[in-house]
Design a protein that fits this description.
The protein has 237 residues and is of the alpha+beta class. Helix content is 45%, strand content 11%. The protein folds into 2 domains: 117 residues, 3-Layer(aba) Sandwich (Replication Protein E1, Chain: A), CATH 3.40.1310; 108 residues, no CATH class. A 5-stranded antiparallel beta sheet has the order 4-1-3-2-5. Helix 9 packs across helix 10. The protein is built from 10 helices and 5 strands.
Amino acid sequence: MSKNKDQRARTWTFVVYPESAPENWRDILSDYHIPWVESPLHDKDVNPDGEVKKAHWHIILFFDGKKSFEQVQEITDALNAPIPQKTANVKGLVRYLIHMDNPEKYQYKRDEIVCHCGADIDEYFALSSSSRRVELREMIEFISDSKIDNFDDFLMYCIRHKEFDWFDIAVNHNTLAINKQLDSIYQKNKSDRSSKESSLALKIAQVKDMSKKGIKQAVIADTVGISIATVRRYLRK
């Protein structure tokens, strides 16, 4: 490797092990006043042979300017952590905090990522245009299947069930299309409001009951009259 190549970087990552880190390691790190991000505790990762890995946190540091390995190692040494690594792909690493793009690995929860000292990582979870279209189709199917007929109910559903991508799409994209669909469903239901009461809860209960009986998702979808994507969402509740 060329000695002239710049080995410094603005973004660095390392892991922290609960068993070796100081009890107040978060305070120690925050005292450097560097924006940093903490992953959920990775306590369900496994090696290729099936052995459970030692529990650990993934940490990302976001510096205003480039820092050398030696400068960052001073921080990791203070936390009794392994040596730091430069980050080549910030978006990929941020999403790796929950294994978002690695479906073969355990999926940790996005709302368990903790941002410290002003760190902001929302942009790294933004959907591409094609992914947004896929999500929008699923949203439209879900709204129709669940007979949701007002914007407030749908937004509260997204909030309560942590549907972050759906909430973003509903608030910042395609709001007019979703509102038109909700209004259309409202007009259909207007003549018989009583039939809507608890319809979502009843459908979820019906889907879960059929699933417990070993009925395949495709059959459940046909029987209840909803999409397979909606069946899967109901089963996650």
